[in-house]
């Protein structure tokens, strides 16, 4: 006589299937959770504080007094990632990002110029023009304008930079000395 199984065997088989099904679904849920946890930080937009916002740097007179007291040493504004420079004929704001590979360019007091630590590019103290390659062009400039109270405001939006090529061009000066 053929037996197709007992009722007890059917229950054990059903339990085994349920356990395997639950384990498989649990594994799928765990994998989906891990993928979500890995991808979620990249979906969220990280706002860079300071960069992109207008930054007030003081009045024209105050800035020129600081330049005269420090032998035209560039003034660093960390929150906006730029230097104020006393260019021949006016004031400009140079973005700290190297035009070679995007490193932050610090001011070097010993050399009296900007010196990129990544690949050795050097920029002029007053105009941010390239003195030593591999940087292909001068530091980019931010727009400067006086507001209603007489404060100079630097627009640090990287989408509205003044991109220059080659030598110093006085036409980029937006705040004149006089």
Can you walk through the features of this model?
The chain has 178 residues and is α+β, with helices and mostly antiparallel strands. It is 26% helix and 25% strand. The protein has helices spanning 7-43, 60-69; strands at 54-59, 75-77, 82-87, 90-95, 107-108, 113-115, 122-123, 130-132, 141-146, 151-155, 175-176. Strands 1, 2, 3, 4, 9, 10 and 11 form a seven-stranded antiparallel sheet that branches. A four-stranded antiparallel sheet has the order 5-6-7-8, with no helix packed on it. Strand 5 (107-108) and strand 6 form a beta hairpin. It is elongated and about 105 Å long.
Main pleated sheet: 7 strands, antiparallel
Broad structural category: alpha+beta
- Average pLDDT level: 88
Question: So what's the overall shape?
Answer: elongated
Order of SSEs:
HEHEEEEEEEEEE
Outline:
With 178 residues, the protein is of the alpha+beta class. It is built from two helices and eleven strands.
Break the fold down into its secondary structure elements and pairings.
Layout lengths: L6 H37 L10 E6 H10 L5 E3 L4 E6 L2 E6 L11 E2 L4 E3 L6 E2 L6 E3 L8 E6 L4 E5 L19 E2 L2
Antiparallel strand pairs: 1-10, 2-3, 3-4, 4-9, 4-11, 5-6, 6-7, 7-8, 9-10
Structural descriptors:
four-stranded antiparallel β-sheet, about 180 residues, elongated
């Amino acid at each position: 006589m053929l037996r197709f199984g007992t009722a007890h065997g059917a229950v054990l088989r059903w339990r085994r299937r349920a356990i395997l099904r639950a384990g498989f679904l649990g594994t799928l849920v765990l994998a989906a959770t891990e993928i979500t946890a890995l991808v979620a930080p990249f979906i969220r937009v990280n706002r860079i504080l300071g960069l992109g916002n207008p930054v007030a740097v003081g009045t024209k007179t105050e800035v020129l007094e600081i330049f005269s007291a420090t032998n035209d040493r560039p003034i660093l504004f960390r929150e906006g990632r730029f230097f104020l420079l006393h260019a021949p004929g006016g004031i400009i704001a140079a973005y700290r990002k190297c035009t070679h590979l995007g490193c932050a360019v610090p001011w070097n007091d010993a050399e009296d110029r900007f010196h990129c630590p990544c690949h050795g590019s050097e920029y002029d103290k007053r105009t941010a023009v390239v003195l030593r390659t591999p940087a292909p062009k001068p530091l980019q400039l931010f727009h400067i304008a006086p507001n209603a109270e007489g404060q100079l405001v630097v627009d640090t939006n990287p989408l509205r930079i003044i991109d220059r090529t080659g030598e110093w061009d006085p036409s980029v000066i937006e705040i004149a000395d006089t």
